[in-house]
Amino acid sequence: MQIPHILQLRTERRISHAFLMAVATFPKPFIITDAAINIRPTLEDKRDIVQNAIDLMHMIKEDKQVRVAVLSAVETVTSAIPTTLDAALSKMADRGQITNAIVDGLLAFDNAISLFAAEAKGI
């Protein structure tokens, strides 16, 4: 069955999942994105996923600077861990291919949410 054109979900960007988390012990809400929708996203797909999350956060917190952490298991690029190649997303933001946020990474999750953890690792 085809969905009528007016009801279609597709836009110019790839569809993605976003989960807004508010943790009592953490001062700011954050979004975990695309835990289940895109199985093997390309770098271009990931750009869309990041931009979708940025746009969502701006809708929720209009007056705040949005920050994006590009996560991986380690903080340095290695061909042994394919997700480390996502560091290119930070450069894409520097060049205006991702907009309206500060994009940084590679970061492990602890470094993304804890200044103490980042400083302990020299980040």
Automatic annotation (TrEMBL):
Entry keyword set: Acyltransferase, Transferase
Top enzyme category: transferase
Source organism: Rickettsia monacensis
EC numbers for this chain: 2.3.1.8
Residues annotated as domain Phosphate acetyl/butaryl transferase: 9-121
Any one Gene Ontology molecular-function term assigned to this protein's record: phosphate acetyltransferase activity
Entry annotated with the keyword Acyltransferase: yes
Pfam families found in the cross-reference section: PTA_PTB
UniProt protein name: Phosphate acetyltransferase
Listed InterPro entries: Phos_Acetyltrans/Butyryltrans, PTA_PTB
